Structures are given as structure tokens and as C-alpha cells.
């Protein structure tokens, strides 16, 4: 069981109505690997990520996390797995969203402590202690009493990361974690992610930050119209691949970022 | 105009106003619970539940409260259930306001961003905890102005329960108006008390709103 890859996707397809958003995705992510997912808008990056913790259901194929089939009952066609089993899988997978999705009616500390209480069943005092330590780890020890509305975007995203990390996940999913941030706040969030990667966390990151992808990722997957059409180490995907759609995507990216 | 008439009746009217107030508050409290439950039904993926919710709302919004009161008051004893007038009154108010509160909550639910529940789901929250800890508190905050409005409407609608023999403000005024032959003084006093109660409720609502907005 434990030598199974962290994520294993085999022939995963997904349609919204007649629109085929994922079209036969095969992808394996090993332990401690950082995989960045890049691709044009609407190519299915978010959908792919959301299939891994079954926030989105998939139509065909298999998604396995640490060997366990996600969302469906093993060997039973397409029968949905019981909610309890799905929750069990989800609590081992952290997810960070583009718009943070902090709970506005709780303080920073409350946001981090709440899942520890509701999901891990910790007593409030114990949860508070751990939450405080987590906020310290993302450099926000002094902000524990603030409500999200009073924090900057970068601080909010770091609270959201702390909220996920407090659950001690074995896998972290990031969906454009810096896209909603002012440029001067991007760095602080990427730094937290970089530290996390250094500590050996398995991460799957949808991003438009090519610098981060180039320097931190072990592998980059380029997604286009629901297919992974380039995959490999950053050097290979960013510089050596001759895939025309990838070249065009990178071209556009360079033009936009070189003024 | 005779001031003495008003002064004599005032303590009794005030007492009756107390009845009006607590019946209304109990009614809206019951309405909150029923409204939340019916709202859960309406948004449920289970078809029969959703249908039940829709029918409930249609019925209790579509039939006048007075008719509902009379139905409860006459129908329940007819099938052998004996309900005291007070219970019938509070029950009717609760059932009716439940329909409106349901729709208020449903509107508020669509105003809570989808990511709020998704964040909780991704962390492994059980559905009940998502409702209780994440969605309901935000729905309550969003719907507070509409709920205060509903409470004020309910307090005024509670004058209808005089027909089932509960001595609330309207019925009490009625009695005094008839016995003193000074209806104008009495009803003006009643109007003033209703107005005062509703102004207080509105002020309390505004205060609660400010407090919630601060948090
Ligand atoms: N719930 C949904 N219902 C219908 N269509 C959807 C839904 N979610 C996504 N889509 C569609 O699926 C396609 C892929 O969406 P997805 O969000 O996965 O793309 P993306 O690569 O993350 O794009 P972006 O870079 O803009 O975030 C898009 O065309 C989108 O409109
Ligand atoms: Mg996306």
C-alpha cells in the first residue's frame, strides 16, 4: 500500500454536458514530488485538480491516492463511495484555492482550529495550540485574532495554507494560489510553498508562475484541451519540447511578461 | 378625547402587548427552525424532499394566515387533537413564518460563495458540520435585515390570533373599546404600542447587524 504512488490517474475523462474537459488523463505523482500544471485558460487544470479530492466527479478512468480509488467503490463500476470513506481520503489531502476561501466569520486562528475540532475531533484548547503553531510557521503569529477581511491577500492565502497544513496532509493541491494577489504579495506565498517543497511535501500546483515552476517543480505537465500534451522535467517542458501548442503558450507568456 | 380612558386601560393594554410580543417571538423562533429545516429540504438533492419543501412553501405562503389559524383551531379538535388556543396561535405563526424564512434562507444560501463549503469539504468536514459551522452563520448574517423585517410583519400579523380567543393587544383593545365607548382613544393607544414595539425591534435588529458586521 505504502509503495503506491501518491497520485495515480489512469484514463481519466470528464465532460460538462457535451464539453469534454478532461480527455484521457494519465498522470503519476510520486511521494515528495512537486508537479506543476500549466496550460491555457479553460484547458481543464482546475477540473483535473478537483478530481483528485473528488470535489469534481470524473466519468471514466481511475484516480488513486496512495493506492486508494477516489470517489467510487473499488471494482463496482461507478458506484459512489460512502461519504465517510471519501472524507477519510480528503482529510489526507490539503487544498489551497485561488480565492483563499477562508471563513469570514472566524478569526485567522478560528479558521485554522476549526477543522482540527470538527474533523480531527481535538478539544478546543488543543486545537488552538496547534493552530497557533501553524500560524507561526507561515509567519502570521501576530495575526491570530484578525478576521480575514482585515488581512492582505497574501496573509489570507498563508492562513489558508496553514489551515490545510494543520491537518497534516500527505499531499497538497494548489489551484492558482497566487493569481488573485497583487504582484508584491506573490513572493511571500511562493516562499511558503517553496519551504514546503523543501521539507518533502508532495505537491500538485496549478500555476502561471513560470519562475516557480522552473525552479521548484520536479515535473511540469502542460495541459491543453483536456489532454496532457507535454510532461517532464522543467528544462524539457519549458525549453526543449517542440510541441507547437506549448511553444505558442510559452511565447504568449514571454510576450506578456517582457512588457 | 378623554385621557382618563387611556390611562385606565393602559396597564391592561400593556400586559396584552406583552402577550403579543412573546407569542410573536416564539412564533419567529419556531419559524426559524422550521424555515431552516424546510430550506434544507428544498435544496436537497433528494427529489421527494425537495418537492415537499416546495409544496410547503406554496401552501403556507399561498393561504391567508387568518384562514390557516381558523383551520388549525377548528380542524385539529375535529380530528380529535385538542390544542389550547395559545399553542394553536404560536404553531400557526411558526408554520406560516417558516415558509417565508425558508425563502429568505434559500436566497442567503445562494449568496454564500460556493468556495466556502468546498474548503470545508476538502478538509473532510461532515455535511452537518458544514451546515452548522460554515453555512448557517453566514446565511444568518446575510439574511438578518430580511429576518427583522419578517419579525415585524409577524408581530403585526399576530393581531389575527385574536380570532382564536387569545387576549393579545388587538383583542384587549377591542374589549376596552366596546366597554368604554371610547374606541378612538383605545385604538390610538394600541397603535402607539404596536409602533413602539416595532421601532424597538428595528433598532435591536440594526444593532445586531452592526455587531455581526464588526465580527
Ligand atoms: N461546473 C461546471 N459546469 C460547466 N462547465 C464547467 C464547469 N466547471 C468548469 N467548466 C468548463 O470546463 C472547462 C475547463 O474548466 P477549468 O476550470 O478546469 O479550466 P482551467 O484550466 O482551470 O482554466 P483557468 O485557467 O481559467 O482557471 C472550461 O471551459 C469551463 O468553462
Ligand atoms: Mg482554473
UniProtKB/TrEMBL annotation, chain B:
GO molecular function, one term: transmembrane transporter activity
Family: Belongs to the binding-protein-dependent transport system permease family. HisMQ subfamily.
GO cellular component, one term: ATP-binding cassette (ABC) transporter complex
Transmembrane segments: 20-41, 53-74, 86-105, 142-166, 186-208
Entry coiled-coil feature ranges: none
Location of the ABC transmembrane type-1 domain: 17-205
Subcellular localization, as worded in the UniProt entry: Cell inner membrane; Cell membrane
Main location: membrane
Listed SUPFAM superfamilies: MetI-like (SSF161098)
Membrane disposition: Multi-pass membrane protein
Species this chain originates from: Limobrevibacterium gyesilva
Keyword Membrane tagged: yes
Protein name: Amino acid ABC transporter permease
UniProt record, GO biological process: amino acid transport
Keywords: Amino-acid transport, Cell membrane, Membrane, Transmembrane, Transmembrane helix, Transport
Amino acid at each position: 500500500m505504502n509503495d503506491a504512488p501518491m497520485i495515480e490517474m489512469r484514463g481519466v475523462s470528464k465532460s460538462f454536458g457535451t464539453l469534454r474537459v478532461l480527455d484521457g488523463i494519465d498522470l503519476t505523482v510520486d511521494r515528495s514530488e512537486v508537479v506543476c500544471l500549466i496550460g491555457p485558460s479553460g484547458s481543464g487544470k482546475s477540473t483535473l485538480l478537483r478530481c483528485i479530492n473528488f470535489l469534481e466527479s470524473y466519468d471514466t478512468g481511475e484516480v488513486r491516492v496512495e493506492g486508494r480509488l477516489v470517489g467510487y467503490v473499488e471494482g463496482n463500476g461507478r458506484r459512489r463511495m460512502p461519504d465517510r470513506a471519501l472524507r477519510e481520503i480528503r482529510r489526507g489531502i490539503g487544498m489551497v484555492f485561488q480565492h483563499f476561501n477562508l471563513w469570514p466569520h472566524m478569526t485567522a486562528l478560528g479558521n485554522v482550529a476549526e477543522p482540527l475540532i470538527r474533523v480531527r475531533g481535538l478539544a478546543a484548547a488543543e486545537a488552538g495550540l496547534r493552530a497557533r503553531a501553524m500560524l507561526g510557521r507561515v509567519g502570521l503569529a501576530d495575526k491570530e485574532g484578525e478576521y480575514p477581511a482585515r488581512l492582505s491577500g497574501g496573509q489570507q492565502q498563508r492562513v489558508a495554507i496553514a489551515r490545510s497544513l494543520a491537518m497534516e496532509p500527505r499531499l497538497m493541491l494548489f489551484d492558482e494560489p497566487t493569481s488573485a494577489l497583487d504582484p508584491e504579495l506573490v513572493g511571500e506565498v511562493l516562499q511558503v510553498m517553496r519551504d514546503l517543497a523543501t521539507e518533502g511535501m508532495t505537491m500538485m500546483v496549478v500555476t502561471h508562475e513560470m519562475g516557480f515552476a522552473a525552479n521548484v517543480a520536479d515535473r511540469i505537465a502542460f495541459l491543453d484541451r483536456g489532454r496532457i500534451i507535454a510532461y517532464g522535467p522543467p528544462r524539457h517542458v519549458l525549453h526543449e519540447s517542440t510541441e507547437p501548442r506549448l511553444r505558442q503558450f510559452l511565447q504568449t507568456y514571454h510576450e506578456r511578461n517582457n512588457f | 378625547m378623554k385621557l382618563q380612558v387611556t390611562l385606565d386601560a393602559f396597564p391592561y393594554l400593556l400586559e396584552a402587548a406583552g402577550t403579543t410580543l412573546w407569542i410573536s417571538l416564539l412564533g419567529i423562533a419556531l419559524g426559524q427552525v422550521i424555515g431552516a429545516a424546510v430550506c434544507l429540504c428544498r435544496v436537497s438533492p433528494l427529489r421527494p424532499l425537495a418537492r415537499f419543501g416546495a409544496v410547503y412553501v406554496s401552501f403556507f405562503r399561498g393561504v391567508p394566515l387568518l384562514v390557516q389559524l381558523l383551520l388549525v383551531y377548528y380542524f385539529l379538535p375535529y380530528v380529535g387533537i385538542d390544542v389550547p388556543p395559545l399553542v394553536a396561535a404560536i404553531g400557526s405563526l411558526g408554520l406560516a413564518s417558516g415558509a417565508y424564512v425558508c425563502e429568505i434562507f434559500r436566497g442567503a444560501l445562494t449568496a454564500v460563495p460556493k468556495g466556502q463549503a468546498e474548503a470545508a469539504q476538502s478538509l473532510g468536514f461532515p455535511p452537518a458540520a458544514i451546515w452548522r459551522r460554515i453555512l448557517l452563520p453566514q446565511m444568518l448574517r446575510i439574511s438578518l435585515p430580511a429576518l427583522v423585517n419578517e419579525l415585524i410583519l409577524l408581530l403585526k400579523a399576530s393581531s389575527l390570533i385574536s380570532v382564536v380567543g387569545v387576549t393579545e393587544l388587538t383583542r384587549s383593545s377591542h374589549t376596552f373599546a366596546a366597554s368604554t365607548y371610547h374606541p378612538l382613544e383605545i385604538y390610538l393607544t394600541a397603535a402607539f404600542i404596536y409602533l413602539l414595539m416595532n421601532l424597538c425591534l428595528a433598532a435591536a435588529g440594526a444593532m445586531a447587524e452592526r455587531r455581526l458586521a464588526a465580527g
